[in-house]
Amino acid sequence: MTIVTVLLDSSDARSLVGWADRFGQALEEDVVFVLAGDAELRSVLDLAAAELSLTLSDLDDVSSEEPAPSPRVVALEELAAADLAAKVLELTAAPGVTHLLLAKEKKSNRRRSAIARALFDRAPCRVILLRPGRSDPEATGSIMVAASGGPHASAALRIGARLALTEDRVVTPVYVEPPFSREAEQVGEFVMKKILKDADLGEGDHIVPKVVVAADPVRGIVKASEEQPDLILLGASEAGAVRRSLFGTIPERYLGRDEGGAIGVVRERRPLGHRLKARLERWLDLTIPQLSRGERVALFEKIRSGSSWRFDFMILIALSTSIATLGLLQDSTAVVIGAMLVAPLMMPLVGAGLAVVQGNLPLLRMSAQAIALGFLAALGIGVVFGWLVPIPDLTNELLARGGPTLLDLGIAFLSGFAAAYCLGRPTLSAALPGVAIAAALVPPIATAGVSIAHGEYENAQGAALLFGTNVVAIVIGAALSLYGGGIRPKRLQAGERPWARYALVLLLVAAAALSIPLGAGLVTTLRGAAALPTADRVALEESVHAWGARVRRATWVSSEPAILQVVVEGPTKPTPGQLRELKKQLTVLGGKFKLRVKTELVVDEPDL
């Protein structure tokens, strides 16, 4: 097992070599030093090795048949920041490399900062980003670890405990509990025991936990650091305000090289999936215009206000469903389109997508409530209108929404993506009406209600399937659009479960499950086609002509089960026997379909 230590600057090389030696002894691992092609760095390394009684050897000079001396040296030529980072990443990806040790400088250096940032973010092994202070291996100060839970803090705890045990010192895990109750300290002690258990550690002679009651975690940790520990370790989950404060606000007399201790941030090993995710996010950041902080705040407020079930939402649902139902009963495409523009259901669906991306459970509950109540209200209105308005048969607009296919899933996904993209950019708000028309959320619910009122349960089932498809696909499309625009999940706190990840997986599973009947519908449509094969078309026309009628059109209006609807004009309706005989003559789909014949009665009167 190996610790790779990168020496980028001679000013911190002496301290970093000392810490690398201490970590190597504590973790019982070899140390490989990577030099950035600087002769002065090798001089500093040789001097530090002599002071610490280390034996150095170039990696190329080590025989593969003999045990490799520890520590070892890898000398790199002078390279650009990106090339050096790539070389080190290649080295850390080798089998047996477990840790990467880097230095964090007090003074800014663009080249070193870029290398350190790239290595900290992308290295597959565990990383320790250290601001070196005192490097005396005989130091007797304590080690403090900010214990907040999670994999990064647990890794920091384990490293601190190994170092303290090896050097016969004390490690102090510090947990900051907010002063929300009188029992805050007892609560903190309970949480601390759980954190130590999760890290496979327990209280002992060298582990002395400490609970600090403070309103702000940063102030609590800074307060605990007043005891002047030799080393402070943090988990990478504190890399925001805590890391900035510890690297920037603790007095310089403490962080000074001659008399102060060191501060390090530990990042746990990064699995392949996390590394791929990080690369994807970097690619998105560089490719897609990212929303600014102000734009994200404005977007959240807009979506949150439009995703709640309130009076305005209820009125718009009632009006849009009423308009859509009347348009469906009237068989008017224009009226149905108008209802789509009034429907408010798109906003809570985008809100659900935003909640999944952010991990915002209150917003998800609000959006889910608006979607569920909106669906029930629209369905009830559709049923009522279906009872009040008598029609002999379902209109074409109603039948068209009873047989969804896989194409509808794609339309809904793209509609959700477009809606979220337009909502995040005010200059594109003019495109939202077109997105609302493409999504078609209210008409399927109204269709289901009218179909139920008329006893057409198969058509109602198809319309409900279409609405469910729209909901799932729009939420997924909106979530991906917002993620690509720069909205990222929040960091999980100690003990918090990644429910948003589970919700996204559930949505993807639902989409896959919906694809089965939708795909069957598409296959049926493609096999049967909108028009019948020539032989079946001739047989159909001949049979209908024998009744004294003529065929107006023959279309597939449902896929599961397959339903062929034939509209004829004639003086009388066909008898059940004539219908059975007609179905026997049609060979399409092997006869595995239902035949529905609609007759428009026409009486030809002789001229007077």
For the record, what CATH class of the largest domain applies?
Mainly Alpha
Assign the structural class, choosing from mainly alpha, mainly beta, alpha/beta, alpha+beta, or little secondary structure. alpha/beta
Residue stretches low in confidence (pLDDT < 50, at least 5 long) are 61-65, 238-258
Give me the CATH fold name of the largest domain: Glycerol uptake facilitator protein
**What's the architecture of the largest domain in CATH terms?**
Up-down Bundle
Q: How many domains make up the 3D coordinates?
A: 3
DSSP strand count: 13
Distance between the termini: 106 Å
- What is the topology, as strand order, of the major beta sheet? 3-2-1-4-5-10-9-6-7-8
Characterize the biggest β-sheet.
Answer: 10 strands, mixed
Q: What general form does the structure show? A: elongated
What's the mean pLDDT score?
79
Measured on Cα atoms, how large is the radius of gyration? 35 Å
DSSP helix count? 23
Strand content: 5-15%
Describe this structure in words.
This protein has 608 residues and is α/β, with parallel strands linked by helices. The protein contains 23 helices and 13 strands. The protein folds into three domains: 2-153 and 215-276, Rossmann fold (3-Layer(aba) Sandwich); 288-519, Glycerol uptake facilitator protein; 529-601, 2-Layer Sandwich (GMP Synthetase, Chain A, domain 3). It has helices at residues 10-27, 39-51, 81-92, 110-122, 151-166, 184-198, 217-224, 241-248, 252-255, 272-287, 293-306, 311-330, 333-342, 346-358, 361-388, 396-400, 406-423, 432-439, 442-453, 457-484, 499-528, 534-546, 576-585; strands at 2-7, 30-35, 72-75, 97-103, 126-131, 143-146, 171-177, 210-213, 231-235, 262-267, 550-559, 562-570, 594-601. The strands form two sheets. It has a ten-stranded mixed beta sheet, sandwiched between helices. A three-stranded mixed beta sheet has the order 11-12-13. Helix 2 links the parallel strand 2 and strand 3.
